[in-house]
Amino acid sequence: MTTTTTKNRIDSLFQRKPNEILTIYFTAGFPKLEDTRRILIELSDAGTDLIEIGMPFSDPVADGETIQYSNKVALDNGMSIRQLFEQLEGVRNEEGNIKQTPIVLMGYLNPVLQFGIEDFCKKCKEIGIDGLILPDLPLFEYETEYKSVFEKYGLHIIFLVTPQTSEERIKKIDELSNGFLYMVSSNSTTGNTSNKNSELSEMQSDYFNKIKSLNLKNPTQIGFGISDKKSFKQATSYSNGAIIGSAFIRHLESGKTVKEFVESVTSK
Amino acid sequence: MKYQTENNKETILRSKIADNRGYYGQFGGAYIPEMLYPNIEEIEKAYYALQDDDEFKKEFEYLLKDYVGRPTPLYFAKRLSEKYGAKVYLKREDLNHTGAHKVNNTVGQVLLAKKLGKNKIVAETGAGQHGVATATVCALMGMECIVFMGEIDIERQQPNVARMKMLGAEVRPALSGSKTLKDATNEAMRYWINNPVDTHYIIGSVVGPHPYPEMVAWFQSVISEEMRNQLTEKEGTPNPDYVIACVGGGSNAAGAFYHYIDEKNVQLIAAEAAGMGISSGQTAATIACGTLGVLHGSKTLLMQTQDGQVIEPYSISAGLDYPGIGALHAYLADSKRAKFYAITDEQAMKAGQELALLEGIIPAIESAHALAALNNLKEEDADFDEKVVIINLSGRGDKDLSTYSKYL
């Protein structure tokens, strides 16, 4: 029996702050190869509650144009999982918020497989990674092949649910997930801005309310299409938190500071 | 074969070669983001139901016969046989409507799409053959058709782009990544994620998440079904000594091998594209050079870096340069059921010209890879003179004339 000495930071976060959790995604190695650690620390110090670091992949099928672009730039910069682990070494010993801010790694399965599942999880634990989002990892394979390894290294696994996911399947996904549940706001790739005025449709609020009514064991966060203070506030009225990705990538591309972005969302 | 057992109704409604989760040995599965789960689940159910659906079978067979022009001939290639010693038959998939085997699958899938109540089709294409076959059946069924094609391929394959447009399809350039087939596939999947309700995605090969590899193989299995009947007429036995097919993703090979997989006396021979050679770095020989990975929803052998980034493969043939390979073929290679030869550009081009001169048939460069494997067999089989060989001539070479004329 292995005992986890420290509680997972994701769980502590949701206990401490059940509402308006701000999660921000960025791609490792973007815009410059060496930016990863700086952006992580700046996000954390600016008050981001949870940080999702994207591991770039050559074929990100679930992502829209913005994150495809950041993936490509990162890979052209020479980014890899090996590099990422080197860049993050000792980051939990830095001054400031980064000691407690939960960090989740998000990426497609293939690069993780090539690194080696056990080696990958071991490295995550060493660095202080709290959870994983692997959108193309199927539930069955997770249960039969990966679950025991992730658990051994204290890593939470966060699965996605969408407006098309059946109630029965949502319950199953909730049962297998830990940390939080990732509610995809609409059936789309990331960064879909078809909803120009960032208003939620009736269908979306029905879906969010349905999930709320299921009394799931995990807290929920809404992602995809959340871009600013307004959409963040709206989303978090239905969930414990919301995730911003593409909008932050575009902000980085424009050369403005990390702090400016976080404050534009969190300001009163 | 197992699915024909009378008293085992259950297996009829299940996968035929793969297990119920779509695995061929360790290869296959459905590694898809949650956004695609309902679509894949819906297709899986509908596909299993089709296997018992007489109305579907009737319509499928009717279209294959009167529209596609099946059965395609099994032609005894006399002068080619004299040259190589063995009796060589050509399965003339090049004589199908649209000029290749691809249409067998698009006819089947468009009927499935109709059953699912979809009114829009999305597809990916590399050289444009699958795109043309998809645009064709969409015109036939009055369905809207969007074909994603890498920006670079659009430039290289203008005649097929023009054909798709004349057939009423919208050709959208895939601008991401390396702007070729794998990126067109990514774009088609993204389109499907964003339009899950009204759109069916017609994958062109035995790749992608389960049940696509099973379904595409099943629609293509008409090839080996006909081979068996036709060879029985000519040789008194359904079984040749060798069946040869080229493999990129592997749909024509899946169709040609399908009814022979359980016939252990039939040697399955696959020709993959070595490009400039398997050690040159300019190759698409996935069995020779690939490693296990996950791409486009399937766990299979892939051309990739040590970091798990997918590499753009190279072949002179635009239809063979997919960075992965159908999970069925990865399994057939791994279990040694099929033997894979890596055929270089030069060997393929020579074999293509040879067929033109000996038999008056200009093969697609893809199919020329299968023809070239005759040299390997002749070299390795001391009794080759006594053997019967079927080569699946998957497509005609009109589309490749400019490449041939530059090369020869």
Any key phrases for this structure?
heterodimer; A: 268 residues; alpha/beta; TIM Barrel; nine-stranded parallel β-sheet; 12 helices; globular; B: 408 residues; Rossmann fold; 2 domains; six-stranded mixed β-sheet; four-stranded parallel β-sheet; 17 helices
What does this structure look like?
- The complex is a heterodimer of chains A (268) and B (408).
- Chain A has one domain: Aldolase class I (TIM Barrel, Alpha-Beta Barrel), CATH 3.20.20.70.
- In chain A, 44% of the residues lie in helices and 14% in strands.
- Chain A has helices at 9-16, 35-45, 65-76, 81-88, 109-115, 117-127, 139-152, 167-176, 202-213, 229-236, 246-253, 258-266, and strands at 21-27, 50-55, 103-107, 131-133, 156-157, 160-161, 181-184, 220-223, 241-244.
- In chain A, strands 5-4-3-2-1-9-8-7-6 form a 9-stranded parallel beta sheet.
- The mean pLDDT of chain A is 94.
- Chain B has 408 residues and is an alpha/beta fold.
- Chain B folds into 2 domains: 30-67 and 102-216, Rossmann fold, CATH 3.40.50.1100; 69-99 and 221-407, Rossmann fold.
- Helix content of chain B is 43%, strand content 18%.
- Chain B has helices at 9-12, 37-50, 54-68, 78-84, 102-115, 129-141, 151-156, 158-166, 181-194, 212-220, 222-235, 251-257, 286-289, 327-334, 345-359, 365-380, 401-407; strands at 23-24, 27-28, 74-76, 87-92, 120-125, 144-150, 170-174, 199-202, 242-247, 267-275, 291-295, 298-302, 338-344, 388-393.
- Chain B has a 6-stranded mixed beta sheet with strand order 3-4-14-9-10-13, sandwiched between helices. A 4-stranded parallel beta sheet of chain B has the order 7-6-5-8, with helices on both faces. Chain B has a two-stranded antiparallel ribbon with strand order 1-2.
- The termini of chain B are far apart.
- Chains A and B meet through α3, α5 and β6 of A and α9 and β11 of B.
